[in-house]
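Justification of resources, computational component.

The compute hours requested in this renewal are based largely on the per-chain cost of generating structure records like the one below. Each record pairs the submitted sequence with a full structure-token output. That output is archived, and it is also reused by downstream analysis tasks.
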Amino acid sequence: MVLTKEYRICMPITIEEYQVGQLYMIARHSLEQSGDGEGVEVVENKEIHDPEHGKGQFTEKRIHLSSRLPYWVQAIIPKIFYVTEKAWNYYPYTITEYTCSFIPRFHIEIKTKYENNNGSTENCLNLTPEQLAERLVDHIDIAYDEVSPKHYKEEEDPRYFQSKKTQRGPLVEGWRANYTPIMCSYKLVNASFEVFGLQTKVEDFIHSCIREVLLLGHRQAFAWIDEWIEMSLDDVRKYEAKLQSQTNSLLVDKVGGGDSTPQTSESPKSPKSPQKKGYFSWF
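The structure output for this chain reads:
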């Protein structure tokens, strides 16, 4: 059975502010996490229109991350490896999916909706009774859930950080009960890896990675608020395009002319310990 979780992440901002902050954080985080031939390659980024959801933005990315995977995964994949991310952003509703040509039975789908509340909507994504019965809800507290020690920075800790421009923060324990402003990101994640003997292990690993990335990314989005709070949507789109060009350049230098099509090769005998995780657009 596919493992399904609904993550709820509250932020001390409005959904209008979050739209800008999210784009800023993803672009900056992607650049910071790229290097040594690994990171995010932006293949396509364009405006789209959907009959139901209206105007939106479509992006396709290749996420090169082989050395960031656990050893047992590195042992079975080629050295040149990437995951394809496709995202349809009809803010405040988005759909994101992840696939891998090397592992055809691997698939992640994330449906997200943003609301100005503290995570109190019990069926924000309009699930069926059957889906509700299978769903596990996980509330992520950006201030009091522990981030991995290798990612911890005191200046990005919401328990101590205070915005100079908005005066928001520090966040005290129980802040989600009465903080104003507040918004919540509701994320329904279906993770599937249909390979006998590995399904449970891989799906559990996928969700542990997703939770860590969500926690870290939202902490950073709040801690960086003074850098993006005065940006317009047009401003942040220009910033995004600039950083995407820089990120692509880092990968082109390593994979050769931007051609990152995976080739079959021997697996590394001594895989490097993963140092970075992140740069996904599911925030």
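The first strand starts at residue 3 and ends at 11. Residues 257-280 have pLDDT under 50 and may be disordered.
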